[in-house]
Design a protein that fits this description.
α2 packs antiparallel against α3 and α4 packs antiparallel against α5. The radius of gyration is 17 Å and the shape is globular. About 70% of the residues lie in helices and about 0% in strands. It contains 7 helices and no strands. The longest helix is centred in the middle third of the chain and has 24 residues.
Length: about 130
């Protein structure tokens, strides 16, 4: 996923590339819609209605969208912490940008998660054992 976090995996195109050309953006949205439907169809039928708002773009409530955005940002932030802990300083700028995004999306639940669990992502393997 790429989104607001500024981090991407190998299966996604960077947002500036996707949306540089309107034709490319339109085609990419078609590909994403097909992928969403495919993912949903892979779930057991009894779960599909429950998971559809999280897999099909534009079907989640505002509150659900907010939670998913928070989770996406937290995931990217934790990746930065892990990389920085391993000595990969290329993630410093992304970490700072994500900290700003986390501040904008702040909630008591997110604060609890970050306070309780995030510090462990900064530990080395020796410190974890």
């Amino acid at each position: 996923m790429y989104g607001q976090s500024g981090i991407q995996n190998n299966e996604d195109l960077p947002t500036p590339v996707k949306y540089y050309n309107p034709d490319i953006a339109q085609e990419y949205k078609k590909i994403e819609a097909a992928a969403e439907q495919r993912l949903l169809s892979m779930l057991p039928e009894e779960f599909q209605d429950d998971f559809a708002p999280f897999l099909i773009s534009g079907t989640a409530s505002k509150e659900e969208q907010s939670i998913v955005k928070q989770a996406d940002t937290i995931c990217a932030y934790l990746k930065c912490l892990e990389e920085l802990s391993a000595g990969n300083h290329e993630y410093e700028q992304a970490k700072r940008r994500l900290e700003e995004t986390l501040e904008q999306r702040k909630s008591p639940e997110m604060d609890y998660f970050l306070t309780t669990f995030a510090p462990s992502f900064e530990l080395s393997l020796d410190e974890i054992s």
